[in-house]
Amino acid sequence: MRSTRKSVLRPVCGAVLLTFLLAGAVGCGGHKEFNVSEACGTKVDPELIRELLPEGDELEIDDSLSDPDQPRCQLSVDGELTLYLRGDIVEPYIKPLEISADGMRRLGNPSPADIGDGASIADHGAMAVQACTHKGEKRQYVLAVDGVDNPQDTAERRQVLERFTRSYLPVAIEAEDCRP
Questions:
Q1: I need a surface site. Which of 29, 42, 51, 170 has the fewest CB within 10 A?
Q2: Same domain as 64, residue 26
Q3: Residues 173 and 117 grouped into a single domain
């Protein structure tokens, strides 16, 4: 009689375990892609920024670090920083790409890109510079993008970073009233 009980319990336990595993998988499938149309007070291409963000349950956009002429925002998914955008209006004699060369190397394998007056795309971030006139004076707008780990494939991530930077730079410059 004992052997019959064991043979009946095995399929039942297996079915219960399978149900929990499937329920867990469905629960994990509840992660969503985010639809972001604005960051740092500036319009962004929702499709491009979506590619830089991992799927998750909660997206938080914090722009509390922004100051006039220095927009900043951090995008966090499920409490993890996944994208940090910074803009700065600087004097025309400053060489942001040279000054930030070490920082770009820390972001992984930086290489030049044909964006604005100069740009560098790395494995986990990007920087682009564009000359502009701000409040009647010659300046430069510097856009920095970092903290990026998505998409997982590095080559694909670099392509998305380049497309995002190319798309976002002119919009960010205009939002800061810095005219090319």
A1: 29
A2: no
A3: yes
Whole-number Å distance between alpha carbons of 32 and 116: 33
Q: Tell me: the pLDDT tens digits for 92-104?
A: 999 999 999 999 9
Query: Rounded CA gap, 69 and 25, in Å?
Result: 46
Quick one: pLDDT band at residue 30, thresholds 50, 70, 90?
low
Q: Which domain holds residue 23?
A: 1-30
Burial class (CB in 10 A: 0-12, 13-18, 19+), 143: buried
Provide the 3-class DSSP secondary structure of residue 93: coil
Structure tokens at 67: 């100051």
Over residues 13-33, the mean pLDDT reads 41
Average pLDDT over residues 67-83: 92
Nearest to 37 by CA among 53, 21, 18, 19: 53
Question: Would you state the structure tokens that stand for residue 173, as one six-digit string?
Answer: 């410059």
pTM of whole model > 0.85? Answer: no
